Amino acid sequence: MAQPRLTTGHVGLNVTDLERSLDFYARVLGFEVMGESREEGREYAFLGHDGTLLITLWQQSDTDFRTDTAGLHHLSFQVETVEDVRRAEAALLEIAVKFAYDGVVPHGEGAASGGIFFHDPDGVRLEIYAPSGAKEGKAPAVAAPTCGFF
């Protein structure tokens, strides 16, 4: 029997401060709040676009994101054009987000795809990329994929 074809649904992230993360993902990155709870001990928010759930935020953590444990490596968002990436970068620069690299960079040396790589308020590694338009940039690591955050 053939296995069904799976696609990624939504991604759930543990956060330390729901209000701070909600502001970042909704106001700064443009996600719509589709549902939320502020009940003590059950704080969460459902975020998406055009009625499609993409991210859930769960206030269930008391420490920032750690890269030395198993689990999420990074979360990537695709946009249509490299100009869209640059618009997102400008909005993020306004709030002093911590970037892994300077500017739009390709996914690898000579790759057409590329984007920006940065961190959310809890240190979760994020990427906004376009499938083309980044070829002229210099990849930060020649022998490894840029999204590796090396």
Give a quick set of tags describing it.
single chain, 150 residues, globular
Describe the structure.
The protein has helices at 18-28, 82-94; strands at 11-15, 32-37, 44-49, 52-59, 75-78, 105-106, 114-119, 125-130. The mean pLDDT is 94. The strands form two sheets. The protein has a four-stranded mixed sheet with strand order 1-4-3-2, covered by helices on one side. It is an alpha/beta fold and 150 residues long.
List the helices and strands and how they pair.
Elements: E1 11-15, H1 18-28, E2 32-37, E3 44-49, E4 52-59, E5 75-78, H2 82-94, E6 105-106, E7 114-119, E8 125-130
Parallel strand pairs: 1-4, 5-8
Antiparallel strand pairs: 2-3, 3-4, 6-7, 7-8
Question: TL;DR of this structure?
Answer:
This protein is of the alpha/beta class.
Give the overall silhouette. globular
| Structure summary, number of beta strands | 8
Q: What level of helicity do the residues show?
A: 10-25%
**Separation of the first and last Cα atoms:** 41 Å
Q: Order of SSEs, N→C?
A: EHEEEEHEEE
**How large is the radius of gyration?**
16 Å
